[in-house]
Design goal:
Elements lengths: L1 H6 L3 H26 L9 E9 L5 E9 L2 E7 L4 E3 L3 H11 L2 H25 L1 H4 L6 E8 L6 E10 L5 E6 L2 E2 L4 E3 L3 E2 L5 E9 L7 E6 L7 E4 L7 H54 L18 H6 L4
Antiparallel strand pairs: 1-2, 2-3, 3-4, 5-6, 6-11, 7-8, 7-12, 9-11, 10-11, 12-13
Length: about 325
């Protein structure tokens, strides 16, 4: 796209102006359709999708259609220079647009000439990037369900370009669709793609299955065999051992805490008893008349600051 801007300095300003001009038309069309369908205010969508295709076999494809509320509203047929409308509300638009033959001829000319011209230009600019091939990295992971003993195998295909890829599970050399689940073919941040398929099988039939992958980046198709899950028996014993060790640690901690509490309680009781003895000895030694002094209040529980703190928010 940087090359596009260098060879056509007005490219960005021109296309930005076109899109801004069409914005007002889309707003007006959205309001018309909302009233035509007798809808209240809220979220509604009015979309346009158009383009042209250059296929690998040299043939070309074209499409120009509008959508309302996520459904096809009206489609342009460039061969007949007419619009195709699926419902009565869209047929109102159809009659209006078909009454403008010059407009329909312009749509056809754009798709067959201008669109193809620019597509070829984009391909020439991005030839190194768009026509490259990146072979997929294929891995198979497995796990076992303890409750029913069935195995789940996941075949992951990562880092490939272009996006077209054929990945399937094979059983005895034939494509096997039963119990097969497909993930989404999604892009990576570097422009490549990733994909996955999984299958659930009986472990006794593991040797009959293969993950089969075909891609333009591969010289030959890949067939990966299934391996015994590493997380079946071994992982189960590791979990059991881990639980036993954790339980012993917890028991040791509890025993240590209990011993400390007993020790602390004995020390606290001894301290209280010694305090009482010292107080009695002091009274006996001094033999002061109790009538001449007010008794000092004592509290074996000590400070009440802990109780006061418990009422505060930390």
């Amino acid at each position: 796209m940087e090359k596009v801007g260098k060879e056509d300095p007005q490219y960005w300003d021109r296309n930005t102006g076109l899109l801004r001009a069409s914005e007002e038309g889309f707003r007006e069309g959205l309001e018309i359709l909302r009233n035509r369908y007798n809808q209240s205010e809220g979220l509604h969508t009015w979309q346009l999708m158009y383009g042209c295709e250059l296929r690998g076999d040299g043939s070309k494809g074209f499409f120009y259609q509008y959508g309302y509320e996520g459904r096809t509203y009206i489609t342009f047929d460039k061969e007949t220079l007419t619009w195709v409308a699926p419902d009565p509300q869209a047929q109102i638009t159809q009659r209006k647009w078909d009454g403008l033959p010059g407009l329909n001829q312009g749509r056809k000319a754009y798709l067959e000439e201008i669109c193809i011209e620019w597509l070829e230009k984009y391909l020439s600019y991005g030839n190194e990037t768009l026509l490259r091939t990146e072979p997929p990295v294929v891995t198979v992971s497995s796990r076992t369900k303890v409750e029913d003993g069935m195995e789940t195998h996941v075949c992951r295909v990562h880092g490939f370009y272009p996006r077209e890829i054929d990945a399937s599970w094979m059983r005895d050399g034939e494509v096997w669709l039963q119990d097969t689940f497909h993930g989404f073919l999604a892009p990576n941040t570097d422009g490549t793609y990733h994909y996955w398929i999984s299958i659930q099988i009986d472990p006794k039939e593991r040797g009959r299955y293969r993950c089969h992958v075909e891609h333009d980046g591969l010289q030959d198709p890949l067939d990966l065999e299934l391996k015994e899950p590493t997380d079946s028996k071994s992982n189960l014993w590791l979990i059991i051992i881990g639980c036993v060790v954790a339980a012993l640690v917890v028991v040791g901690v509890i025993a240590g805490i209990a011993g400390f509490l007993v020790f602390f309680k004995k020390r606290q009781d001894g301290y209280k008893a010694a305090t009482r003895r010292c107080r009695d000895i002091s009274k006996a030694a001094l033999k002061r008349p109790q009538d001449d002094y007010n008794a000092v209040p004592t509290n074996d529980k000590g400070s009440s600051s802990s109780e006061q703190g418990s009422n505060q928010t930390v």
